Amino acid sequence: LIKKLIMNSYDVVIVGAGTAGLILARELGKSKRKVLLLERKKDLLEFSFNTLGSFINLDEFGLTHNVVAQDINTISFHSKRMKRKIKSKLYILDKKQLHIEILESINNEFVTIKTDVNIKNIETDIDGNFTAVTDQNKNKYIGKIFIDASGTKGVISKTVGLTSKNPDLATGLEYNVKYLGDPGEMHLLVGKVYEGGYGWVFPLKNERAIIGFGTFDKNIVKDLKNRLHEILETHLIKKLVVKDNDKVEGASIPITPVLSKFIVNNLVCVGDSVSQVNPIVGEGYKFIFEAALMATKTIDKALQNDSLQFLSEYEMNWKKRFLLNYQRSKRTQGRFMKYSKADFLMDYILFISKFIPDKRCIKSLSGEYGLENK
Predict the structure, then answer these.
(1) Is 334 left (phi over 0), alpha (psi -120 to 50) or beta?
(2) Three-state SS at 257
(3) Among 74-83, 108-117, 153-162, 255-264, which stretch is predicted with the lowest mean pLDDT?
(4) Can you tell me the distance from the alpha carbon of 101 to that of 1, in angstroms, rounded to the nearest whole number?
(5) Is 357 helix (H, G, I), strand (E, B) or coil?
């Protein structure tokens, strides 16, 4: 029994092998920390969405161009009567290839990955520090520091009250379709037909594209597939894509109030488990990657000095880098949810945007306005 407990004892136990969990495991493995990465799914490359648009700096996070599904040079915004084109470099990312690349870079000498693991119990000591998690087969995993990177499931963050047990979510659906447009032009669509949300067309290679629709409105979420089919029949979309299959994909992201507390004793939360997606952008990869790197540095320092007090630097650094911007983005999100239901308002906003330089528009769209050192 003692031997088994020693074998199941780690410097860091990470719950969730999604985007945040993989980056954390990769970075902590570089520091030669003994890491356990637990994932409830059997297949680490099983996704609800297979692509996303991103302004990510690949070099900054140790990624190669192989993770890119398509290079984009133009973003076109469409309302009912207006169109605004913005020139900008960004990527449509291939999530499967990106996760493969991160997995291949993980140091397996120090990082152990276990799949098909559902955490059922969390143990603490008399000081409130977390000591172990137990799975559905009553296997116990002991750690010095625990990380919740379990996404919207919030396996631990919800239990300790950092996030709501029933958070508000934005939900989207999409199809992989035949593409008739410019392969370098991405489309974002707003207006009454999208009622409280927006549509997107992400070009891929080989004359394919992703057509999707996402909304914050709970009533529309109930009829999301029919709404997406209605959008496919609009004049603009018919000029851009041809639906040639019935395979639909879907997922949700949290739209909770902006959070700034991610640590409880020796528990560290990263990513969607504490709603770290930028509220106005929706695409969270580059923000979650950066948060994961921040967390890694403070976790490594805490282990090196055998002191949990260093973990607080993660929260401090995140607040300095993101908090004011996220709060601003949250206010903008609220206005967008309201204004996007009226065509004339979205037409007016796009018209006014024509007088704003592309560079300024991109800073807002990428979620980087007002951020320090970027």
Answers:
(1) alpha
(2) coil
(3) 255-264
(4) 37
(5) coil
Supply the pLDDT for residue 283: 66
Q: Are 36 and 12 in contact (CB under 8 A)?
A: yes
Report helix, strand or coil for 275: coil
Core vs surface per residue 95-107: b (16+ CB within 10 A) or e: bbbbbebbbebbb
DSSP state, residue 311: G
274, 20 contact by CB (below 8 A):
no
196: left (phi over 0), alpha (psi -120 to 50) or beta: left
Six token digits for residue 275 = 């709603």
Q: What is the DSSP string of 146-186?
A: EEE--GGG-TTTTTTTSS-SS--EEEEEEEEEEE-S-TTEE
Distance from the Cα of residue 345 to its chain's centroid:
29
Residue bearing the bigger pLDDT, 179 or 363: 179
Residues 6+ apart with CB under 8 A from 113: 17, 25, 37, 39, 44, 106
Tell me the DSSP string of 198-248: EEEEEE-STTEEEEEEEES-HHHHTTHHHHHHHHHTSHHHHHHEE-----E
- With 0-12 CB in 10 A as exposed, 13-18 as middle and 19+ as buried, what is 124? middle
Task: Go through 342-370 and write b for each residue having 16 or more CB atoms within 10 A of its CB, e for each that does not.
Answer: ebebbbebbeebeeeeeeebbbbbbbbbe
CA atoms within 13 Å, Cβ hemisphere of 330: 15
> What pLDDT does 3 receive?
43
Task: Determine if residue 3 is left, alpha or beta; phi over 0 gives left, psi from -120 to 50 gives alpha, anything else beta.
Answer: alpha
Contacts of 51 (CB under 8 A, 6+ apart): 69, 92, 93, 94, 95, 202, 204, 210
Tens of pLDDT, residues 199-239: 999 999 999 999 999 887 777 777 888 888 989 999 999 99
Q: Are 212 and 172 in contact (CB under 8 A)?
A: yes
148: which strand partners?
15, 269
Local structure of 255: helix, strand or coil:
coil
